[in-house]
Amino acid sequence: GAVVSQHPSWVICKSGTSVKIECRSLDFQATTMFWYRQFPKQSLMLMATSNEGSKATYEQGVEKDKFLINHASLTLSTLTVTSAHPEDSSFYICSARRPQSYNEQFFGPGTRLTVL
Amino acid sequence: SQQGEEDPQALSIQEGENATMNCSYKTSINNLQWYRQNSGRGLVHLILIRSNEREKHSGRLRVTLDTSKKSSSLLITASRAADTASYFCAGNNAGNMLTFGGGTRLMVKP
Q1: What does the pLDDT look like over B79-90, one tens digit per residue?
Q2: Residues in contact with B68: Cβ distance below 8 Å, sequence separation at least 6, in sequence order
Q3: CA atoms within 13 A of residue B102's CA, in its CB half-sphere
Q4: Cis? peptide before A86, omega within 30° of 0
Q5: A92 CB burial (10 A radius; 0-12, 13-18, 19+)
Q6: Chain B: residue nearest A48 by CA?
Q7: CA torsion, ordered B29, B30, B32, B38, to nearest 10 deg
Q8: pLDDT tens, residue by residue, B70-81
Q9: Which residue of B has its CA nearest to A101?
């Protein structure tokens, strides 16, 4: 199956720090990637849709200046949490959609962000 | 808002028993997908059922879909301790966006 990686897998930072999370599709080109956020024991909430070469589409309630998304290539999307606060602590998961498999999303292993 | 709502939220069974999880959704879907997530890990795609399908099997998994009731069920037969995980349904709408339900936390005791 298609492989999606995320880096880092876990990051701990101080309040006010900006943190960049990378999502890579390793064996396919992904024109569309998605970023989700998951709080403990809760479900995934879609934050934004990242399209290669264009601006991301953010879900209602997600601050685009807070969560910067860049999808500069067909294999890489980045999510930058700017000026992180403790309430930004969460599990961030990306997924990538392969053009040949329009209905399927392949998920990365997730990045756990802890903001002190 | 979440597309699907899982029932039950938590389920504890003995190894060898069957586990049934239900999911309801609100809006129209093209297909419904079930995912598994081990604690603190990413999601693993289990099975996809299209809106024109009523039942689908994959190994020990059986999924049903009732579009008139906007509900789906996931049955895991002959459960194993390794099946312990959270299970999510996700509705895929016309825009090919996945919206996840709340999840069922399954515990299979050896």
Answers
A1: 999 999 999 999
A2: none
A3: 10
A4: no
A5: buried
A6: B97
A7: -100
A8: 999 999 999 999
A9: B96
